[in-house]
UniProtKB/TrEMBL annotation, chain A:
NCBIfam families: small_GTP. Belongs to the small GTPase superfamily. Rab family. Keywords: GTP-binding, Lipoprotein, Nucleotide-binding, Prenylation. Coiled coil: none annotated. GO terms for cellular component: fungal-type vacuole membrane; late endosome. This is Rab small monomeric GTPase. Gene3D superfamilies: P-loop containing nucleotide triphosphate hydrolases.
TrEMBL record, chain B:
InterPro entries: P-loop_NTPase (IPR027417), Small_GTP-bd (IPR005225), Small_GTPase (IPR001806). This is Ras-domain-containing protein. Transmembrane segments: none annotated. Residues 136-185 are annotated as: Disordered. GO terms for molecular function: GTP binding; GTPase activity. SMART domains: RAB, RAN, RAS, RHO. Keywords: Nucleotide-binding.
Automatic annotation (TrEMBL), chain C:
Keywords: Autophagy, Endosome, Membrane, Protein transport, Transport, Vacuole. It comes from the Eukaryota. It is a peripheral membrane protein. It is found in: Endosome, Multivesicular body membrane; Prevacuolar compartment membrane; Vacuole membrane. It holds the Pfam family Fuz_longin_1. This is Vacuolar fusion protein MON1. Belongs to the MON1/SAND family. Residues 308-412 form the FUZ/MON1/HPS1 third Longin domain. InterPro entries: FUZ/MON1/HPS1_longin_1, FUZ/MON1/HPS1_longin_2, FUZ/MON1/HPS1_longin_3, Mon1. Residues 198-252 form the FUZ/MON1/HPS1 second Longin domain. Residues 19-141 form the FUZ/MON1/HPS1 first Longin domain. PANTHER family: SAND PROTEIN-RELATED, VACUOLAR FUSION PROTEIN MON1 HOMOLOG. GO terms for cellular component: fungal-type vacuole membrane; Mon1-Ccz1 complex; multivesicular body membrane.
Amino acid sequence: MGRVLLKVIILGDSGVGKTSLMNQYVNKRFSNQYKATIGADFLTKEVLVDDKTVTMQLWDTAGQERFQSLGVAFYRGADCCVLVYDVNSSKSFETLDSWRDEFLIQASPHDPENFPFVVLGNKIDVEEHKRQVSQKRAMTWCQSKGNIPYFETSAKEAINVEQAFQTIAKNAMNQEEETELYADYPDPIRISDTAGQNYGCNC
Amino acid sequence: MADTGDASGSTDKPIQVKLVLLGEASSVGKSSIVMRFVNNEFHDNKDPTIGAAFLTQKCRFEDRVLRYEIWDTAGQERFHSLAPMYYRNAQAAVVVYDITKASSLDKAKSWVKELQRQANPNIVIALAGNKLDLVKPASSSGDDSEPSTPPATPHESEDEADDATATPGENPASPGVESLRQVPKEEAQAYASEAGLLFFETSAKSGEGILEVFTEIAKKIPIEHILSSTRTGSRGGAAAGGRPADGAVNLEAGGARGKDACNC
Amino acid sequence: MPHLHELPHLPNIAFPPREYFILTNAGKPVFTSRTHVEDSSDDLTSAMGLMQALISVFADDGDKIRCINAGRTRISFLLRSPLYYVCVSSWREPESVIRVHLDYLHQQILSVVTASQLRKIFERRNNFDLRRLLDGTDGILHLLLSRLEQDVGLTTGSLGAVRLDHSVRSKAGDLLVPPKDLRDVLYVLLLLAPCLVKQSIHPSDLHVLLNTLSAPSLSSNSAPSSSSWLPICLPKYNSDGFLHVYVTFFGGKSEAIVDPSAALPPTPISGSDGSSSNTSLRSTGLLNALITASGRHGYSTNDLGVPGLRHFLYKSRSHVQITMPVWEEPYEIPDERKRLITLYQCVHDALHARSGQAQGPLKLHFLRTEKEIVMGWVTQPFELIVTLLPHLPKSAVVGAANAVAKWVKKEEGRLFIRDAPVF
């Protein structure tokens, strides 16, 4: 059996540093060729989670406009959603709610209450006095949404990026592993019941 | 020649013993064990069993002929819910794990639990740790396959995938080969005796331990019980002379024949 | 006066392996025909992610992508939500052929998980990793792909029967009728090699079944005493439920009685009834007759004595069965055979206007290449494609086709299964 694929969607306003975070983490340039045409691009990375190697597929959206709908298909089957804001921009923090709702509507996960999100407050390398969103404020919001794990990161200086993505992978993996196998063999077909549709020898 | 009232007398009619093999998928070696037992063959094939295969093998055991009716089941998760059909009326079960794969013992334990809860209460369960050939220096196959090495000392081996520990070269006792083992014999044996199981380490490849599994099962099977129940069952209760079910003869006392018992 | 339709010949092309992918509608990999996945796991997930994205772009506009043509390579898509099937081929076969391939992959997947199970799982979890449920079926899917490449029966929606004397066939058939007290038996099939002795089953289901049975784990375990039970869904019969198939092998490697039934698998059939048809097949000497026949199954175009004839494919429309001679010079060479099969597929596609050809279905279709003439001919009782030496005049080709049809008519009793007992 092939390796488990974890599908991770990264959402947040334009300019908060989604692409830089992923570049920092994956250490590979984005092609950007798909983003121009289909509004999204992805990177893959092999990650070790609980001694298991899995493939994490990180989907980065174009994100220029808020609520630019990417369509159900991009969100479908996500294992984790990462919400990114810029600690130096209140506005980017305030839109997290909408991004979260947008995701839940589009992806319509099986158990929205327990769907794994991770919040990243990026650009903590900028001078302290420019900061607009306090750690406390962010954590309060995360707690109110069902204890979403929160990391403060700097893509530029590689602060906390590795740790954040490790948590993302782990939470995505939990989602994957909780799945029981719906493999019950139903009672076999009763042939008499289906005799009407039996094409028997008529072919 | 049917019922002379002496159920223990030598008879040509073989006693049918329904036996089921269970264990994790991904080649712990269930089918290989059966092939070794039935055809005395070993094929290094990795193709998984689908559904369940049915094979039979006759055995002479003391003065009786047993006919093992073996259901070799597929280990994949999707077949799990079918397993009860195969073990429901079984008199014996062989639960197989791979001694070089710790997680396969966990799966084996869960099979044992399920059998003890849901199978025939008299079922004889044997636990077989297969692939002994991979950890015996005598046969040199299968070494350099995995670079990540499990820890050298047995008591640590629950952390089997912790690759921060010893490399093969640092293991002075049995370099390279024994280190493939992930399930220490003592650990599995302790579990087996606690759970009331027969216990074996086997190699379907070399044949080691395979006959013993079926011989020891034969010793432990309540044969009289089978005889009386088949007689009442299939011949419309004509078995007036059958012994009561729980009056089964203890075969363990006289059955010290080891390997040769199953040769026919 | 028949309408002759002439097309320029197909150029000589190479036949690099076709690539097949199955993914979920979340873009998660389910299967790939690539065998060295570990080396390129990264590429593979990327490719599948991209496929999902492409399909999505169209889906968001309420559209369905069918194929992308890139030079001589065509990427075909078959969407059977929650699964997507993709094939990359540069063989230049008609598009309809690949759709049939992809549909067979789908049928084979359904044979393992059923349509209703699949629906249920993905309603509850659209991120489900289907490989968990399909664990161990990769081999069967690979087998199917290689059969699709070589077995014209699959792409023409028909079956091949073992060439047998009618009396032997009907004796075997009588023996296969299960005892009256064994109810819930749907079919009993007798197989020699991959061919059929008796049948009454939808061709596509049968191919799925045959393919499953050729799984190495079944056929390599064919010790004289062995038999197998396996749950299988035959999607054309009922895509929502399982049947249990009981398979007994006798003697050689490839002879099997197959007995899909709804009966549960415990001992009864294996012990008594299953071996009853087995033993009676043996005791009447019928088994030997069958095995001998399977050795004589193949025949040569020389047997027909039609000048210039190199090969043909005859489908009896009423029996839904095909017959053809063995592949002979030059078609015993794999690439030449692939080329001819592709020509057959082109002719078949044109005859039935499978790719929506403007002129509609044809009665006759004629292809000429540097190496051969291929002509397809559809009549009420049969479809025939004949291959002849190049540069023969059309009149000779038509004459040859008539001669082949006549010969098959004469041999019909041995070539086809005409009456399967119903119970």
